[in-house]
């Protein structure tokens, strides 16, 4: 259930299908790696072979950006809605709570993962967050030991892209957990340090516009979107 957009695989799964597969994978001890795909990453991968391989190496590439959904629609594909990294993470947290799976939060500035842990514990009573570690620890053995000792089933990795994806590929086979998701700045949002766009913007697919109003310097990144769509249609 994947489509290829400019050389990058993108899953056509809904949240529900993904959650079901991931929970099954945990029970089967099958390693899974989730990466969020947006037009910016696809454009970057056009001239970066190693990034293309890295993104295609993931088990599930989720259509995080509205541009990816549009490209699929224009080409008559099956992707109808975004599957965002942060919502995927929250839904995984909810399901993990119900199925009593353990979670580890790795990444972000010191203190932020702990704040995110508190927020998640308030939102999902009973959630088992077995450990946290900030994303500026340099000693790889310390990181690996913290994660393995926690006996977590799911690790969220918030180091920014593509650092988090590189980290996951390098370590996933030697770590105890089975599910790995790169979540970028999600702990900053969950902890309340950074605000996400209001839900009306999200529903209309205008989260990018809200971010543009808040952070006008993003225009350079966002101008990639029309170029990306043109390229995706031409292919
Ligand atoms: N970060 C980290 N270690 C680093 C560099 C960054 O933990 O060495 C964290 C940073 O604090 C932030 C996240 O990685 O929480 C990156 O967020 P951003 O929104 O930039 O992610 P992206 O846009 O790449 O998804």
Care to describe what's here?
The protein has two domains: 1-12 and 20-83 and 201-235, no CATH class; 85-185, Response regulator (Rossmann fold), CATH 3.40.50. The longest helix has 14 residues, at 15-28. 51% of the residues lie in helices and 17% in strands. The protein is globular, with a radius of gyration of 17 Å. It has helices at 15-28, 39-46, 49-57, 66-74, 85-98, 112-123, 140-150, 163-171, 186-190, 199-203, 207-214, 219-222, 224-234, and strands spanning 2-5, 8-11, 32-37, 60-63, 102-107, 128-133, 154-158, 179-182. The strands form two sheets. It has a six-stranded parallel β-sheet, sandwiched between helices. The chain has a two-stranded antiparallel ribbon with strand order 1-2. α2 packs across α13 (224-234). It is of the alpha/beta class. The model has no long low-confidence stretch (mean pLDDT 95).
């Amino acid at each position: 259930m994947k489509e290829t957009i400019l050389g990058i695989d993108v899953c056509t799964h809904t949240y529900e299908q993904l959650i079901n597969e991931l929970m099954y994978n945990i029970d089967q001890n099958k390693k899974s790696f989730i990466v969020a795909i947006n037009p910016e990453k696809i454009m970057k991968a056009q001239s970066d072979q190693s990034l293309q391989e890295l993104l295609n190496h993931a088990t599930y590439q989720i259509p995080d950006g509205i541009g990816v959904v549009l490209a699929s629609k224009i080409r008559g594909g099956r992707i109808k809605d975004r599957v965002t990294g942060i919502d995927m993470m929250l839904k995984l947290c909810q399901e993990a709570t119900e199925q009593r799976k353990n979670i580890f939060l790795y990444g972000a500035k010191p203190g932020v993962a702990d704040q995110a842990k508190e927020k998640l514990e308030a939102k999902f009573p009973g959630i088992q967050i077995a450990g946290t570690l900030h994303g500026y620890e340099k000693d790889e053995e310390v990181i690996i030991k913290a994660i393995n000792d926690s006996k977590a089933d799911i690790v969220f990795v918030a180091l920014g892209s593509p650092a988090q994806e590189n980290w996951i590929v390098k370590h996933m086979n030697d770590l105890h957990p089975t599910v790995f998701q790169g979540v970028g700045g999600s702990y900053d949002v969950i902890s309340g340090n950074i605000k996400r766009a209001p839900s009306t913007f999200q529903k209309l697919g205008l989260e990018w516009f809200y971010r543009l109003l808040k952070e006008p310097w993003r225009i350079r990144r966002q101008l990639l979107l029309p170029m990306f769509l043109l390229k995706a249609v031409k292919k």
